[in-house]
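Entry 12.
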Amino acid sequence: MVGWPGMSELSRRAIVALIVGLGFAMAGAWPWTAVVGLAVLAVVIYIVVPRPKPPPGALRYSTGPSQTGPDWLGFVLSGLFFAIPVWAARSEPFFGAIHPSALLTWPLALLSTAFWLIGAVYAAYWIVIEADGLRVRAAFTDRRVAFRDIRRVSPYRKSLPRWLVALSPLLVGRGQYGAAGALMLARPRRGIVIEVADGGRIAIASDSFETPMKKIMAALAAQGIALDDDGKEH
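Predicted 3D structure (tokens):
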């Protein structure tokens, strides 16, 4: 059923993000055993909750760099930015339950959810090489592309969004050196774009997908479809 894998992955991550955010916010107010318990619960839900299974032979992205890493970076950052005004309100109670710093940090918390949203998209994504074409399953779409309908295959390159890179100085200021370094050292994403006869385009990123990408390119080559490298990356 179209949409279910994407919704399942998003729901699981949203629940984990809420638990992590609650744990950060209650640190110092609740007993540390309760906070640690929330952390354990978040990890258990992340690992144990069943996930939609792709068909046999499906090509998928490597879990660590495309999902687990971005997921937990997003959970920690969004939880931290959410909790900062709560912590500040405890030390300066005359501001009320929520410190005015929420005007700065809560938008950052919302932006940080992009990391685990990306993880959810990659988790629900797989490709099956069939006899007459490719079946491409994304978070909310399921598409079959016949080899005969492919008009062009070209390389593409996408850089990290500037707003993510702009978070680096703030992360350094908060002592989050690892996260800041990851953003500053992040490489542009590369992959291919498949253009089909109906005018549609399917982008496939090659990062954390190197071996499956070789299989896809081999299948395309076997059908006489070569990479149209005109020197321009789209």
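Annotation: Residues 4-222 form one domain. The helical segments are 4-26, 32-48, 63-91, 102-123, 162-165, 168-173, 177-185, 210-222.
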